[in-house]
Amino acid sequence: MENNSKKWIGHLAALAVYIIFGINPNCSKAVVPTYMAPAVFTAVRMLFGTAGFWLLALWQDARGRARLGTDYVRERVPSHDMWIFVWGGVVLAGTLIAFSEAFRFTSPCYVSLVSATSPLLVMLLAALFLKEPISVRKSLGVLVGIGGALMIVLFSIGVDANATPLGLLLCFVNILFYGSYLVLTRGISKRYSPITMMKWIFLYGSIICVPMAVPFFSAESCPIFFESAPAIVYVSLFTVLIFATVVSYFLLPVSLRFIRPTTVSMYSNLQPVVTACVAIAFGQDIFTWNKPVALVLILIGVYLVTTSRAKEN
């Protein structure tokens, strides 16, 4: 019963993460690239996440000392695990850079539609690095999901102005980095608290992203810092910083602690539904026939992958 309750915690955390991720593309598109260059937007997210998680770590330490006194021991990371945090920062930086750059060439709907293929990619990465078994059912799911992804590409380019080849490529690069992040951090998410884990990952990610952003920090590329912007832009920016950066990346290791990376990524099928509804409602995208058909194919593929029983089950 206790094990089941822990799994429910993992599922609820994953559900919250992907609902936030569903709103994130709409909010990001309101800011990037019109009011902030993608590289600067990524650096701001990284710096905000670093500050947020280090402040939470200080609060956690103060709370521990107040409760346990001299018996309190701060959670420390040995050097062999610190290298995993370094690589986690590199992969997270790649994820957020590709994500923000994609908005220069495509719409929130396509970013989220491509994100729905992440369970298929995570399954392949988990099989390669975590030795999770691949069954015939999973293989069929991958093929069906790839069919949905191909439909996005083949029936959109040249028809929908938002479906540019470079934009879709950046979406797939984003998912490649994100899937690698889930697989890479699966092990350490069981050994460290989410705050300890994320304070180091965001710190190393900031070291990568901030120097890349400096050349783009200007009145022309980032008018939000030099003149006033509409209120919706500030609301969108703070929604990304607080919820899509701190809250979601706090909950992500919580979900990975209790359920498999493939299962966590299964919840990405919510993302395109949430994003599309918000994007179409606010005029950020248009409805085209291939989007729901592609989504259905991707969801069928995800269903086949995630309902295939592992050997130990």
- Low-confidence parts: none
- The total of helices stands at 12
The proportion of residues forming helix, as a percent range, comes to over 70%
Envelope shape? globular
The largest sheet, given as strand count, sense and whether it forms a barrel, is: none
Q: How many DSSP E strands?
A: 0
Along the chain, the helix and strand elements come as HHHHHHHHHHHH
Q: State which percent range the strand residues make up.
A: under 5%
Features:
0% strand, globular, 313 residues, mainly alpha
List the helices and strands and how they pair.
Elements: H1 2-31, H2 38-68, H3 79-102, H4 108-115, H5 118-129, H6 136-154, H7 165-185, H8 194-213, H9 231-258, H10 261-266, H11 270-281, H12 290-306
Question: What would your notes on this structure say?
Answer:
The protein has helices at 2-31, 38-68, 79-102, 108-115, 118-129, 136-154, 165-185, 194-213, 231-258, 261-266, 270-281, 290-306. The chain is globular and about 65 Å long. It starts with a helix and ends in a 7-residue tail after the last helix. Helices cover 73% and strands 0% of the residues. The longest helix has 31 residues, at 38-68. It is an all-alpha fold and 313 residues long. The protein contains twelve helices and no strands. Helix 4 (108-115) packs across helix 7 (165-185), helix 5 (118-129) crosses helix 7 and helix 6 (136-154) runs antiparallel to helix 12 (290-306).
